[in-house]
Design brief:
By secondary structure, the chain is of the alpha/beta class. It has 10 helices and 12 strands. GO terms for molecular function: Notch binding; polypeptide N-acetylgalactosaminyltransferase activity.
Amino acid sequence: MSSLPKTSIIVCYFNESPSVLIRMVNSIIDRTPLELIQEILLIDDSSEWPDASLQAADYQKSHPQWNMVKFLRTPTNQGLIRAKVFGARKARGEVLVFLDSHCEVNQEWLQPLLERIKEKPERTPTNQGLIRAKVFGARKARGEVLVFLDSHCEVNQEWLQPLLERIKEKPERVVCPIIDIIDLDTMKYIESPVCKGGLNWGLTFKWDYPPHTYFAVDPKNFIRPLKSATMAGGLFAVDRNYFFKIGTYDEGMDVWGAENVEISFRIWMCGGELEIIPCSRVGHIFRRKRPYGLASDSMGKNSVRAARVWLDEYIVGFNYGT
């Protein structure tokens, strides 16, 4: 474990519930070897309700294990995409891990991800990044691995080690935990099945479930890394240097929407691999209403932008809204 890179865990949130945010951070601290964590960055995207940041800061005063938690606030509301780049610029870990604030990580969630990033690529001399918030956080990160989390998450036991183990093997691998469900009303933690990311011709993300035969042939497939075409976007770990090498997110995109599909194209078409790591689990609250709104305008604009950049001759099949 001592050979694994230090990780910056980046959690962006807007109008988050204080109890959800505190629970999420506690799950990281309780279920992750602290020697693997460079820092936990809580990025408040200029929330209209500052209760979460204020109560979390008060909580930190009486809990010494929170000394690795740093509170940052964007000067103005940037939207989810730019808020993540903001957090990435502030991070110091070699690997950035992005998580939603309404999640909960599981035991040994990180090690398989980091195992896939073993050799360090050369760091790009200048920032080629795209989505401003995450790129900003990546520039500031000190850890070798960046772990991005949503603020409405809660990490599970040993959630970090499986991600770090996978990244350690190959730095061009970007790895995601299984996203479990935290019930919005009861806060009950519900296990999700093993699945991978897909998309339709409108470049809308969707979950794809492996056929039953995939698990029936070999039960070990329940725990083996699973190649994935796309990622959900909020929760993933990436080698910090590789994140910059591929240009990070497209900072020309607004708010949120389609950035997860765009960076998935970027990873696969720029020499990388994208995997789901079943041994790493993070709980996530799927809310009825998004703090940033529905982002219907930004979703359409971002999808068209990604299609024009990456689909080449296949753009004739692009049909946003399908």
